[in-house]
Amino acid sequence: MTTSSSMCSFRESALQAFDNACSAFAEKENMFQVATNTGINTTLLRNKLNPSQPHRLTVEDLILITKESNNYCIVNSLLLRLDMVGAKLDLQSSEETLVKRALENSMFAGDLSRLALENAGETRLSRRKRNELLERAHQSVSNLVLLMNDLENKTSGVAPFLSMATDFVITNGAPGLV
User: Fold this and answer.
1) Which of 51, 85, 47, 45 is nearest to 66 (CA)?
2) Which ranges of 29-58 would DSSP assign to H, the alpha helix?
3) Phi and psi torsions of 56, nearest 5°
4) Other CB atoms within 10 Å distance of the CB of residue 42
5) Distance between CA atoms of 88 and 31, rounded to whole angstroms?
6) Which of 18, 45, 61, 68 would staple 35 via disulfide (CB 3.0–4.6 Å)?
7) How many CB atoms lie within 10 A of CB 45?
8) Which pLDDT belongs to residue 164?
């Protein structure tokens, strides 16, 4: 009986997270433009994103609207229910210095800290604040993945290691040599 109860509550919370993500997507995006560019009927797309309607998004619809809008909130909500986190990577981004990536990480951490402090006394977050926090957190995760990728690329030989050491010395000075 306990297993049945917990499965039911899991389904409820998963469905609620998905519905919230669909609502957030519909609020943020220009639905007419997304529907037109993906070839989905505008009214049907609005209905599929509305939790009170019987229509549901198909996997193909989800992929189309996500790629078109570059808004991953629905996909992220599904991954979170699977205890996973997704990170969107900018495949056109160039390899940056480790210092720049680390500073960007500090910037994202600072934004998250600021938002957390602004809402510290709140017992509940508004949907807008929650979505803003999630967006910043996902940006931070993406930056960390790029940082890890840059680290792997820079440490695959002697020359990259020397480049990384030079970055460190330029940034921090030469400890013990002064």
Assistant:
1) 45
2) 31-38, 42-49
3) -130, 150
4) 13
5) 22
6) 45
7) 23
8) 60
